[in-house]
Design goal:
This protein has 303 residues and is an alpha/beta fold. It is built from 11 helices and 8 strands. Strands 6-5-4-3-2-1-7-8 form an 8-stranded mixed beta sheet. α1 links the parallel β1 and β2. It is globular. The two termini are 22 Å apart. The model has no long low-confidence stretch (mean pLDDT 93).
Length: 303
Amino acid sequence: PVETEILQVNVGKMCNQTCEHCHVDAGPDRQEIMTRETMKYCLEAIENSSVHTVDITGGAPEMNPDFRWFVEEVSKLGRQVMVRSNLTILTVNKTYRTLPEFFARHRATIVSSLPCYTAENTDRQRGEGVFDRSIEALQMLNAVGYGQPGSSLQLHLVYNPLGAVLPPPQEKLKSDYQRVLKQQFGIDFNDLYCITNMPISRFLDYLKSQGKYQEYMETLIHAFNPAALSGLMCRNMISVGWEGSLYDCDFNQMLELKVESGAPRHIRDFDLKELSRRQIVLNQHCYGCTAGAGSSCGGEIVG
């Protein structure tokens, strides 16, 4: 690892959607929710470290009852807040509909999943009606300044392939997204992140049901790109599970592969100096982050 700059915090697996590619296996029936006590351990770790960005994820992180409190407390520490939103949660009811203004007030960066700029492909991966509600949410975010020219409020979209294939070149796809979303819906956004589907959890189940697991793994392995290694998310980020355990990345978290033994393994024992000496825990899914142009929480690694 290099210097830890990002603390990614999974505040729970509860979600209003059940997307077929979800590596978290999130959904409405999940009960795992981070407590305020665990959030306080996170805040203590942030305050006493060089972490400059707190990446809040889920599930739908907004469904954690202490979500707004946590965002406010991170903001008070002067750190950048990043929220990974599925967009549709912002349209559920009056409570969630006030979130765009809340995000803007705290200058949060919003990273939102939109697997395609067409309704057919988006709904096929994420559920019926998801595209239309996602468009509505993006328009709500645009209305408070997100993604607008000259605005500092950052709005990024995330693309995941629909099947067992690698993502296309990020810049080309970004141009297509920007053109279609602007022309058809008047939507602006800052960047597009292409993220490779990891062969774990719900996407792994899909691969096995289609008889494509072996083929997909071979695709990832044959596309191994050593140039992607320096930009891997596990090198400058630590992932915190909903119950406080520490992981090298969000994917390891879902496989319950904690940071190596000997390093602090819970947020209450957070020690950046000790964690900086750890060896990254590897498994076969790591080929997903090193395939082709590489894949991280910020999308393509090698442009």
